[in-house]
Amino acid sequence: MPAPATHRASGLIIALAAAAAFGTSGPFVKPLLDAGWSPAAAVAVRAFAGGLVLLPAALVALRGRWGLLFMAWRLVLAYGLVAVIGAQVFYFAAISRMPVGIALLIEYTAPILLVLLAWGRTRIPPALLTIVGAVLSVAGLALVINPSGAGGLDVLGVVFALCAALCLAGYYLIAALPTGDLPPVTLVSAGLVLGGVALGGVGAVSLVPFTFSFEPVVMPLVGEVSWMLPMAVVVLVATAFAYLTGIIGAIRLGSRVASFVGLVEVLFAVLFAWLLLGEVPTWLQLMGGALIVAGVVFVKLERERDPVDGSTVQAMAKKLSKGDHVEWSTHGTTTSGEVEKSITSDTEAAGRTVRASDDDPQYLVKSEKSGREAVHKPEALKKTNS
Description:
Layout: H1 4-22, H2 25-34, H3 39-62, H4 66-71, H5 73-95, H6 100-107, H7 110-122, H8 128-145, H9 155-176, H10 184-204, E1 217-219, E2 223-225, H11 228-253, H12 255-261, H13 264-277, H14 283-301, H15 313-317, E3 325-330, E4 333-343, E5 347-349, E6 352-354, E7 362-367, E8 373-376, E9 381-383
Antiparallel strand pairs: 1-2, 3-4, 3-9, 4-7, 5-6, 7-8
Helix pairs in contact: 1-11, 1-13, 2-11, 3-5, 3-10, 3-11, 5-9, 5-10, 6-8, 6-9, 7-9, 7-12, 8-14, 9-11, 9-12, 10-11, 11-12, 12-14
């Protein structure tokens, strides 16, 4: 039986894999933009094709339970428009008007935004370890991307980068939400396809620039290649694999820790620039990488608090027992019912595999209205009087 620490460790490994995959997008999308692709067109193709790649696995995991997808339409819509389209379009629009380094520095203030959001919602100041980790990570990020020699700033580019930061924060919040019985791969596939279709529709009516180029593109150290080569890497690695591992990692780590682990994407971007573009990292960049990793470690050491009222998961877990009346959110709709039992070991319940332990329990609950059973973590349940 995997312990909670092992579960979180696997989440860290998965999140690092997602960061590495996302880190491939810049070196492979940039040649497409230089060849005449608009940011919106590149993102639409990337998202729609990535969703289609995951579609077979999504359908198998769904097992014909289409009602789950329809019940989660708000979550799918938010994932597709904010986590997929918003973050990508604004970032690519930013790097089309300003250096990648500055755009990344602005976009990756997202973890700080999440810390400030948690502070504002709970009125509990961030712990010292979180503050230290944030300072180290931002300092390391500045050293890695070295934005000082980039020249003047484009105002509209800065605005695009700030919007990308807000959407990136939204991505980590949405990705960390419990999906209930909806398989994560189904959510990712549906969100990507929806985002691609929506953006394609917006481009079709000329609300945003929507241009393609099917001419060969030039990649440094490689030379002239078909546009399909960089797009294939973007679709398979930087989209399908990256978003799937990203949501799994965020569910296991929580939005705040996952967002700080996501900073490592910049290190992978530097590594790929070295391998693909021949840009050898400097000692300052290596020092910055060490600071980013140190910052992630500090934030990871601080156990996340319950986003509802700041209490720890363990404290809330002690308040629930069999027969307690509770409420929970099911894809935006409040459902009421009662606790049937606590789950403190790995088992099969409510039609899925549940990972739990004494330190990380979950609860089997039954809806009063439909009689259906579901499994939720303590922080997703609100005890009520009935």
